[in-house]
Amino acid sequence: MNNRSIEQVVSPAQPHFVGDGFLVHNYIPSRSGMDMQRMDPFIMLDYNAPVEFPPSEEPRGVGVHPHRGFETVTIAYKGKVAHHDSSGGGGIIEEGDVQWMTAASGVLHKEYHEEEWSKKGGLFQMVQLWVNLPAKYKMNPPKYQAIKNQQMGVFQLPGNQGSVEVIAGKYSGVEGPAQTFSPIHMMNAQFESRGKADFSFPAHYTTCALVIEGEVSINDRVFSTNHFVLFSTDGEDFAVKATKPSKVLILSGEPLNEPIAAQGPFVMNTRQELWQAFTDFEDGKFGFLEE
Ligand code: MN
User: What's the rounded Cα separation, in Å, for the pair 285 and 82?
Assistant: First the structure.
């Protein structure tokens, strides 16, 4: 073991609404200095902790908005979301599924609670993560990966301790289905009470964990639900031990180490490219998407 220490812990901030459909705690960029450079290649992390939405005939969500220069990754734990984008991508993200949208050169996007689900309402729990794209891929055509739960690689921890569901990258030889533009590991670790798993990623990778459910101990510190742990780059390995049934989202990505010029829904490398993104959006070059 070449132990990785903990650099910072973020407790959940007051949640805020994104549109009228997502009540999120924001962790990246964090109020405590974990900015886009430190979190490279992760740009933003919002987590809608479990919340009960009442039935609504009119689906709640976020109307048409642009993205350029990065990817949005939506992980649905509870509830259903319908996505559409101007490149023709879209679909329904059901419980356990992940949608990996590569906005790249630009899309218009809308994200709503799925219509039938919305009519019934219910428990809603979801993550949205923005992953930056390397400069050479920022103007690629948009792409959409609908990753069903059954497609994910699953590593069973020995002795009914739980399992690790791999979305991207690798865990103990099990690979995740998501195609990424830079090395990224993304997984949901599910633990029975007293379950334990070891994780190892290259030391310089930006590595973090979000406790989705339950309570875990890492480096002899205890973290409860909705706490976010940023690891330092001083080692490769860490162990997560559950003190009760738990779920933890684990992220590790190689930093791109490129300049970041970000504003609102655009993440580019220079101010000039950012200005170009706004101009192209104003000129209608992101295509069309019905409200
Ligand atoms: Mn969006």
Answer: 24
**What is the spatial distance between Cα 5 and Cα 233, in angstroms, rounded to a whole number?**
8
> Ligand 1 mean position to 263 CA, how many Å?
14
Q: Which domain holds residue 80?
A: 14-148+262-291
Tell me the pLDDT tens digit for each residue of 220-243.
999 999 999 999 999 999 999 999
pTM of the model: 0.97
Pair (186, 251) in one structural domain: yes
CA of residue 265 to ligand 1 center, whole Å: 8
Q: How close is the Cα of 222 to the center of ligand 1, in Å?
A: 34
Separation between Cα atoms, residue 258 and residue 263, nearest integer Å: 16
Q: Find the 26 Cα to ligand 1 centroid distance in Å.
A: 15
Query: 182-219 b/e with 16+ CB inside 10 Å = b?
Result: eebbbbbbbbbeebbbebbbeeebbbbbbbbbbbbebe
Q: Is residue 5 part of a domain?
A: no
- Provide the 8-state DSSP code for 136: G
